[in-house]
Input
Amino acid sequence: MARAIWTGVISFGLVSVPVGLFTATEDHTVHFHQLQRGTADRIRNRRVNERTGEEVTSKDIVKAYELAEGEYVVVEPDELDSIAPGRSQSVDITDFVDLAGIEPVYFDRTYYVAPRGKEYEKVYELLRAALADTGKAGIATVVMRGKQYLTALRAEAELLVLQTLHWADEVRDPRSELPGLPERRAGRGKELDMAVRLIDAMSGPWEPERYHDTYQDRVRELVRDKAAGREITAAEEPPQATDVVDLMAVLEGSLDRARGAGRKPKGGSADSSGPESAAPAKSAKRAAPAQRGSGKPRQEAGRSGSTGKHELRRLSKAELYRRATEQNVSGRSRMSREELIDALAGPGRHRRSKSAA
Output
């Protein structure tokens, strides 16, 4: 059971509800120690006086703000403590704004919000439902761990979520920061129509479980391979930039590839985009959630007998990778899409995976 990192009260108007804040995400990055090459000796960071080269203890270190080169104002820890805001006991919502109006660049960290007792669930759910119905987010400031944050309280399907926001002066202006942006907007034409069709063909519901941090898998597999003395295979080279002269041909080829991978444009199948095929496509989309709730893994739908290459080519690389993980395909993190298809279509592969299940 997770522990609350902050407890207090959410207030809006004269209504308040005691809540706890819980971290919503966790880091799965592979972490390394530092060693001196050729030895097993750990490397430690030390605080060293830049002029004398001598190590300095933490009690002899003070904070300083540089006014000009070599000119500092020293600030003692107790001086900072005297002006630091106390820990917030409440999240006082001062404004409600359209959630869709907050640009994504402002969002920072996410926290789950839970009521601190069953007696507060009614008020908690009332606030959640009201935010959901109006599409609004409550804006408030809160102090946690000695730092003040701007926050947005928003509703999800079952709970309230608090997201810390960047302050306005922390967000860079892209027009002044970036080396160049298009001077003209894309006008309606064949290329734009083709790009829209490509996006349509590659569109689907947001399913975060389809996406996987393959780099971290490769790091772990690299460590295992090196420990076992196995050969290390280099990653594929990144694709070359698209030539503007061949843009239309590249778009057409991408659309054909998306259709061949089983993605269907809205209102039709891979072979037809006429209105007569729109209804089956929509009904298929409506049926998808029911399949996910049936208790069967999503990728088992539609299987009959062994899985051939033709069927596998209709899957995205993320879906292929997930199957390879379930079937414990060795070296999968280094495989291209075609290599994953070959590995999954290998003789006896499907039979082994079913018997293992």
Notes: The beta strands are 6-12, 15-23, 63-68, 71-75, 90-92, 95-98, 107-115, 136-144, 147-155, 160-165.
